[in-house]
Amino acid sequence: MASSHDPRPAGWRVGADIGGTFTDVIALGPAGEVVPMKIPSTPPDYGAGVVAATTQVLSLAGAEPEAVTAMLHGTTVATNAILSMTGVRTAVVTTRGFRDVLELGRLRRPVLYDLSWTKPEPLARRRNRYELDQRITADGRLEPPADDDEVRAVAARLRADGIEAVAVCLINSYVRPDEERRVAELLRAELPDVYVTASVDVSPQPQEFERTSTATVNAYVGPAVHGYLTRLEAELRAARVSAPLLVMQSSGGLLDAAAVAQRPVQIIESGPAAGVTAVQKLAQLIGLSSVVAFDMGGTTAKASLIEHGEPFVSADYEVGGGMNAARGLSSGAGYPVRAPSIDIAEVGSGGGSIISVDAAGALHVGPASAGASPGPACYGFGGELPTLTDANVTLGYLSPQAIAGGRVPMYPDLAAKALSPVAERLGADVPATARGTYQVAVSNMTTAVKAVTSERGRDPREATMVAFGGAGPLYAAELARELGISTVIVPVHPGLFSSLGLLVADTERHELASYRSEFAEVSALAAEFDRLAATVRAELGADAVVDRLLDMRYRGQRFELRIRVPDGALTEGLLAEVWERFHAEHKRTYGRAGTDQLVELVNLRVRGRLPTPVWIENVLGLPVAAGREPATRECRFAETVSTPVVSRFDLGTEPADGPMVIEDMDATTLVPPGARVHRDRFNNIVITWSTE
Fold first, then answer.
1. What percent of the chain has pLDDT over 70?
2. 542-593 pLDDT, tens per residue?
3. Which residues of 636-658 are buried (b: 16+ CB within 10 A; e: fewer)?
4. Where are the beta strands (DSSP E) in 391-498?
5. Cβ(410)–Cβ(393) below 8 Å
6. Which residues pair with 24 in a beta bridge?
7. What are the structural domains, with CATH classification, of the chain?
8. At residue 145, does pLDDT exceed 90?
9. How far apart (Å, rounded) are the C-alpha atoms in residues 188 and 455?
């Protein structure tokens, strides 16, 4: 590996990110070469697209597969297994009397007035939840311990019932983890072909429902993730790529594939986290204090907030119920997961989102998507339903010839044909319908940005927006104007920015200990932090950078805030500073603060990071290219305007007036009338609106 003072890798590093429509790959060479590749995704075997794109990008770079020293991957396999409900037959083994924890859950409805709404079915059916005559008390005593013969009898029933994955969730196991791990090991010995998860290995925390749900989700997706990673590694070896496979976690750090296979619940937000990580590194480079990361791909649009160089990392979120959610009013629709995850708000508006009209005549965009197959009608792959991409072609925003560097041809006549039935229902012409669709999509996306800004007590007008994803730069300027954001940055390789994030991400590991009364003393807290730090350094190496964090709340509250502990020896003075940080963050988030006497510690956490050998400035170079011939295209805004079409290379450092269409290989940036645009020293496209 290259020296930490050398931004260049020792060999080729390849970042591969799977999206709903495209698979994106960026290769970074030892001399700083950056080679991008974008091909349609290959469902249901997404790994085949990763291998094909990797092979193509290395061939284009003139590099041998053996020269790859790091294979970095962002994947949606865990998310897809839950959203499509295609995980394996899963069972839960628990303490007698706690069989129905998954049904009981929490009294929370995501929609208060929809009487037809029903909770999603538990991932483990009631007939597949088994009880043991054992109990761990709240202070860690066994009354009684699990009987080995009873565990073996349960294993026999699991075998007879055709169970493929098991979550072991014993009451209060977080205070006596050895007992739950013993039961899990007995089951593994009896069922060697079954995927077994102990809840204390994925979420060693109080609150039985959340811990049981997390372990069940882990078990449900475990075989799919393990099988996918095993096949992908084998296919990469067959293609002569023998570099270690590292996978992006939801928290924004990489982890080796073997560890991910044991805790796949950590990669549910793998792909989106990679993009936010790239924005984080860019914000640190430029010196931006508040940044909204806006990512729009083929299926969804996502937003995340980065403050002072760090994204918000949530301790828990929900997956399933048709969408992943991390907060507030949307909770209750899916399955709770307690694992570190970058706080990402998501709405079902992407380039492939299907346009429809409801019975009342209202126009809708998404959440259903045409995906990669058949894709938007304009791709000519057989899709017939109208999508946002079809609208963008009709409006003149996208090239009528081809996108993705010419790899995907475009057929504007098919786009207009798909939009015609919608236009007829609305009583409008096709261009007006397409423009209305664009505006509805912008309105939908404001929800995601507000969820990570104003709902957190942050003013979006104080932030800069960084837009990426295949469709993000098309919508970012209009979205920013809607929110009062004055500046939008579109970085290089915007359509492959999540892949770029893989190249610059640190390797990361998290460890957690639930708070107990004996840790209240400073010396005991310090000892527990040291123990957790030793665990992550054993995995990552002695050079790992370790951050300490505390989950804190006021007594009687249900939710916690995560506060970072400053570096240095743990003292009364240092803890007092942590308390002050907690009060300030609570007031900023909720509008009020309490006193020290009300503060309660919930969890101790450490985050170990092994810094990447690659700096983001190493991948922001713009390849030298001849300026393109001057061209214009008719684009529909409030009215139809003849609009210049240029490349990023053609932009100058002095602001120019919109409208303008800027075409990269992997994305198209739209500069509406009234906005101004220039290229900065890092080759970013910078769009500005008047602050008036």
1. 93
2. 889 999 999 888 988 878 888 999 998 999 899 899 999 999 999 988 888 9
3. bbeeebebbbbebbbbeeeebeb
4. 402-403, 408-409, 464-468, 487-490
5. yes
6. 17, 38
7. 12-81+227-247+254-267 (3.30.420.40), 85-222 (3.40.50), 507-610 (3.30.1490), 627-688 (no CATH)
8. yes
9. 45
